[in-house]
Amino acid sequence: MEHVESLTKYVTHFVDQLVFSGIEHVVISPGSRSTPLAMTLAEHSEMNHWVHLDERSAAFFALGIAKEQHKPVALVCTSGTAAANYYPAIVEAYYSRVPLLVLTADRPHELRDTGAPQAIDQTDMFGSYVRWYQDLAVPGEGLHMYARRQAARAVEEAVGNHPGPVHLNLPFREPLIPDFSLNGLWREGVKPIPRAFSGKPGLQEEVLEELFQRLNRYERGVIVVGPQADEELAPYVTTLAARLGVPILADPLSQLRAGAHDKSNIIENYDALLKSERIQGLIEPDYILRFGAMPVSKAYLKWVKKIKTHADHFIVDTYKSYREPAGITAQFIWSDPAILCSRLSSFFKEGSYETDWLELWHKLNSTAKNQMLSEPEDQMNEGHAVVYLSEALPDNSNLFVGNSMPIRDVDSFFMSTPKSVKVLANRGANGIDGVLSAALGSSVSGRRTTLLLGDLSFYHDFNGMLIAKHKGLPLTIVVINNNGGGIFSYLPQVNHPDHFEELFGTPLDLDFSKIVEMYGGVHRKAENWGEYKNALAESYGSEGLFVVEVITNREDHVAFHKAKWQSIEESITTWSEDEC
Fold first, then answer.
1. Which one of the record's GO molecular function terms can you name (predicted)?
2. CATH 3.40.50.970: which residues of the chain?
3. Angle formed by the axes of helices 529-540 and 382-392, to 10°?
4. Which of 28, 86, 186, 467 has a Cα-to-Cα distance from 294 of 20 to 30 A?
5. What is the pLDDT of residues 350-367, one digit of tens each?
6. Which of 162, 193, 187, 158 is nearest to 71 (CA)?
């Protein structure tokens, strides 16, 4: 069998199996050695292919698609350092449990370690950050079913017991051009490999009974829902909270603050409340039942460490893992969260259990909310930028949030809403790289997407906007421009002015309008609240890329937040002393 025929059968059966196994999108970065894969993926009628020139941005773009759609996405690049540019997104995918199928083309084995051009050691190059790795055989006669088996297993490994990235390294010999006119390609003459059956993990009845008994003996419980992606969890966990008569501390990435489900037990302002030691004294719980990862709130983390010996801690996770950075003694429960909530709720009386404990939390949350949402001064600030953004967000849309200060401001100022808003972020590794590209990936589904991020994060990934220009992807970007790294103003480094600005403040002093114009987008600069609201309204009436630049003062940021926290503490201290 000639080389071209064996190559063509190998790659067509490999790609067809990917499609059969559920891969719908592939992000391709151009290159020579990846030609067989790129052309075959583009040839398959059921595969959506996206061409992205920058491999680092391409990987985050694929991450965004997979994160928003909860489906595996493939990545393809050529040999050499192209694959190395995938590394940051693969690390993020690993920690945030997002399925990616990383396909790196390579030189054949005889050209490795010989000084051949564009030939680096790609074997197992992503190490422990992928769930599974294989260095595949070079295409040869009769290996098309081998290629199918590898493709099928790669998808299963990516979406299986513990979702995440997998890496297949595919060596190809020249010539690299497949011939799609040959017979025996795609699904012709073969039976595709079926998907494996799998189920969601649950607990035995006696274990549920024991958990019920432990929770039922206490009155002052708290449910915490940290960052998690299951949009079906909300009605189950809110039902459980109602029957227990306990509050739910809902992280902005919990998927609980927005939607049509019951929010009567939702507490959005716990971060601000827990900033105060006086308030902490009012709300020490008997137990904490946590779903999802550790919340964004640093105040919550400190609080948990403080009460670790006074409360029972239960951590629910779908997969066997130990996501507990507070160093507390915790009871891990490895079970599907929605199934656990549903079955555990059946042990309690139906309806909503009203308690003095729950009433206290409601009053605290209401007081905090009134202070956080109080009318802003004329000067622009990050907090009310989030408030007005949440009011303007379209129903059935995505809000993608950058790391550093934006996610913390969303935690503080994004309140409960009946609108369907999916809140996303790259909180696996918490980096500022690739956020713009990930947000663009999340817009592929057709849901209107808004990205909120800082000026440094915007600068870090602005070349990701090229695919928005080429594909006409609709994205509203709100850039909080305080000319530098605002989060460092909360850290001890700020007390060292001789080095602070150069090493940590890092002002950019850039005119972003020129960058946005280069990528065919619309740019609006907002220097007052009227301009900001008008720009948001204009963006949601437009198609394509629209950037709203909000000008704030980094030096005022800390004082603004501290004033809010102080006003909350004073208000609550006043009425709590009056009641006593």
1. thiamine pyrophosphate binding
2. 3-171, 378-556
3. 30
4. 86
5. 888 889 999 999 999 999
6. 158
Q: Superfamily for 205-370? A: TPP-binding domain (3.40.50.1220)
CATH number of 3-171: 3.40.50.970
Q: Phi, psi at residue 471, to the nearest 5°?
A: -105, -5
Give residue 130's Cα distance to chain centre: 17
Q: What is the structure's pLDDT at 577?
A: 61
Q: Taking the chain, what is the end-to-end CA distance rounded to the nearest angstrom?
A: 89
Taking a C-beta distance cutoff of 8 angstroms, is the pair 437, 386 a contact? Answer: no
The CA distance from 13 to 144, in Å, is 6
CA-CA distance, 255 to 250, in Å (whole number)?
8
pLDDT level of residue 502 (50, 70, 90 thresholds): low
DSSP reduced 3-state for 417: strand
CATH 3.40.50.1220 segments of the chain: 205-370
Residue 580 pLDDT more than 60?
A: no
Tell me the two tokens of residue 87.
């590394």
Tell me which residue has tokens 């969890």. 233
Q: How many CB atoms lie within 10 A of CB 50?
A: 21
Per-residue pLDDT band at 490 (split at 50, 70, 90)? low
Q: What is the pLDDT of residues 8-20, one digit of tens each?
A: 999 999 999 999 9
List Cβ neighbours of 498 (8 Å cut-off, separation of 6 or more).
Answer: none
pLDDT at residue 320, as a whole number = 87
CATH architecture observed for domain 378-556: 3-Layer(aba) Sandwich (3.40)
For residues 268 and 292, is the Cβ–Cβ distance under 8 A?
no
Mean pLDDT of the chain: 92
Read out DSSP for 279-305? Answer: HHTT---SEEEEESS--S-HHHHHHHH
pTM of the model: 0.94
Closest by CA to 133, choosing from 198, 83, 179, is 83
Is 423 strand, coil or helix?
strand
Tokens, residue 15: 């790609």
Helix (H, G, I), strand (E, B) or coil at 486: helix
Q: Tokens for 9? A: 């059968």
Nearest to 434 by CA among 42, 75, 49, 103: 75
Of the CA atoms within 13 Å of residue 19, those in its CB half-sphere come to 18
In Å, what is the CA distance from 476 to each residue of 68, 270, 463?
16, 29, 16
448, exposed or middle or buried, with CB in 10 Å at 0-12, 13-18, 19+? middle
Residue 475's beta-bridge partner residues? 449, 545
Please give the C-alpha separations between residue 108 and each of 3, 413, 428, in angstroms, as whole numbers: 14, 54, 34
